[in-house]
Amino acid sequence: MAADLTVNGVPSPLSAKVVGSFAYLTIRDRLPTILTKVIDTIHRTKNTFFEEYGEEGIQAEKQTISLLSKLRNEVQTDKPLLALTDDLQDTETWNQYMQRHQGLQGDQGSVSWFKSAWLYVECYMYRRIQEAVWLNPPIRDFDVFNEGKTQSFFESQQAVMALCTHLEEINKSMEQLSRSQLLDNFNTLLLVSLWGNKCDLSISAGQENSQKTSPLDSLSSLQPFILVDDSNMVWSTLISAQRPGQSGVRVDIVLDNAGFELVSDLVLADFLVSSGLAREIHFHGKSFPWFVSDVTVKDFHWTIQQTMAANHKWMSKSGFQWKSYMKEGVWSYHDHPFWTQPHEFCDMAADASDLYTRLQGADLVLFKGDLNYRKLTGDRYWDYTVSFDTALRGFGPAPLCSLRTLKANIQVGLQPGQGEKLTSQDPDWMTNGKYAVIQFHSPKSEQ
Ligand SMILES: O=P(O)(O)OC[C@H]1O[C@](O)(CO)[C@@H](O)[C@@H]1O
Ligand SMILES: [Mn+2]
């Protein structure tokens, strides 16, 4: 992939200024579609707002829709990005970030939708949705994406049941498993969590996109679509981090989407604990509705609750187990404003040092999904063969692994010729969600 500009060896960020690029099509088509759906959702909830808040609820609905329609117009006409006007804890950070980008753009005009970094402006859109809702207190806590997320969970019921049944079978025979059987089970559940990332609602602009069949049946046929597979390094990291006399290590999972993907992450986390490989799991989620389907604290607890309430023996057993892991503190949920900011992760140590320090306490950090991959690599025009380590630009609080299906045109760490071959076979390979990577980095391997 050709970088249009490289400064000190670092290519420029992807941007919608490249007409016809995926970033361009996202800003031109997908973001306005997402905004239209949000407006429609708020409109359809009007009666509920009225029942709960009376006339004030109706006013809030009107005001929010008017702010969002204005936002859609700003996107479509490539207006300059505006400073945020609310009083949330991250408002100042966002406004400073805008100044920073303005500085980087120099005399090339204002920071705007089609001219600036795609990662930045796309994140900014979700923060503006949050602003629009927040500025209207009666409906402040309304999650404009909730409907889609719950629907996607219910549509994947068969797959969830199959997965929980599989988990029960493993847990039943856990004591008798040999090391290699343990490894096989680990690999299977890692793959389910990887492919669970196909089920996001942002790439489809909110169209349903759930897991309908058993996720376990398709794993071997999906194997050729894994472009980089570092799963053996993930396993050896887990094994070598074990300490005598201590049961297991700490694994952090930086979550992505609610629905089937979240269940696949919870099942992996359950296995890590019940096998004794991990003693503690820290989940990291978003503090407000983000990229259509990302997990918020409400989604997290709701999913556990729904799993418990299921009319299926092994599904509900799993739900109860997860609830007790949470209660005992074996599992914990954390959010941090940094996850809903536009920064590339190489900025984390400087811009969110508390979060960086927290991640340093993990023995392994799993980053789920495409957006996390974009942030890990800075969403830049790297050549395909640049190493993952190089693209991380010093980010490495702990050994880490990205589990990602490809939905944005950024990819590093490929073999020479691999990217070109894929382009000739399947021109949309970077964005059609058919391919995946398991990419590992350890800060130790750099010393
Ligand atoms: O849920 P995921 O895997 O992060 O995917 C979301 C992706 O979809 C997109 O919206 C596609 O443009 C990306 O911005 C984002 O990277
Ligand atoms: Mn997502």
From TrEMBL:
Gene Ontology cellular component list: nucleus
Name of the featured protein: Sugar phosphate phosphatase
Similarity comment text for this entry: Belongs to the damage-control phosphatase family. Sugar phosphate phosphatase III subfamily.
Protein EC: 2.1.1.-, 3.1.3.-
Record's keyword terms, sorted: Hydrolase, Manganese, Metal-binding, Methyltransferase, Nickel, S-adenosyl-L-methionine, Transferase
Organism: Solea senegalensis
One Pfam family here: ARMT1-like_dom
Domain comment (free text): Subfamily III proteins have a conserved RTxK motif about 40-50 residues from the C-terminus; the threonine may be replaced by serine or cysteine.
GO molecular function per UniProt: metal ion binding; phosphatase activity; protein carboxyl O-methyltransferase activity
Keyword set includes Transcription: no
General function of this protein: Metal-dependent phosphatase that shows phosphatase activity against several substrates, including fructose-1-phosphate and fructose-6-phosphate. Its preference for fructose-1-phosphate, a strong glycating agent that causes DNA damage rather than a canonical yeast metabolite, suggests a damage-control function in hexose phosphate metabolism. Has also been shown to have O-methyltransferase activity that methylates glutamate residues of target proteins to form gamma-glutamyl methyl ester residues. Possibly methylates PCNA, suggesting it is involved in the DNA damage response.
Ranges for domain Damage-control phosphatase ARMT1-like metal-binding: 26-422
UniProt GO BP: DNA damage response; methylation
Catalytic activity: beta-D-fructose 1-phosphate + H2O = D-fructose + phosphate; L-glutamyl-[protein] + S-adenosyl-L-methionine = [protein]-L-glutamate 5-O-methyl ester + S-adenosyl-L-homocysteine; beta-D-fructose 6-phosphate = dihydroxyacetone + D-glyceraldehyde 3-phosphate
Cofactor(s) for this UniProt protein: Mn(2+); Ni(2+)
